[in-house]
Specification:
4 helices; 6-stranded mixed sheet; single chain; alpha+beta; Nuclear transport factor 2 family protein; about 160 residues
Length: about 160
Amino acid sequence: MTNEDAIRELVCRYCRGIDRLDMELVRSCYHAGAIDHHTGFDGPVEEYIAWVEPKLRGFDGTMHLVANHLVEVVGDRALSETYGMAVHWGTPSDSPQLNFTSGFRYVDIVERRDGEWRILERYASREWTRAEAGLFVPREGPGPAGRRDREDYVYRLRDRLVTP
């Protein structure tokens, strides 16, 4: 795996952690002492995780979609710029505070230590937000349904993959 691929995978792991409410996975994406600058938060990663988890639990679900991703590696440090969209939904469905989509950018300084890339400093900016109140509808029938915890099927399948 190239450095660029490893850094892109890091961003995807972060998104999985956020969407599955797996704060241990989110924490593992940052180096100790990392700093996060988010809309509404600015400070150490430990405080960021304590701040973001209850906010996320206020939604019925979130889905982060990663798009353009540019990585510039210089030795054991890199600049990573990720464009994406984050969909948020909640109850009541007509609440614009609980039902919205945001376009975002993550601009990260990442560093490789002991062969592993992690975030050293993140700037997460909302480029735009669109209210989606009233547009979310219940599932149309039975079938696989994601969960917002480590009981989600992605974790069960991963466990089967690593422990056949």
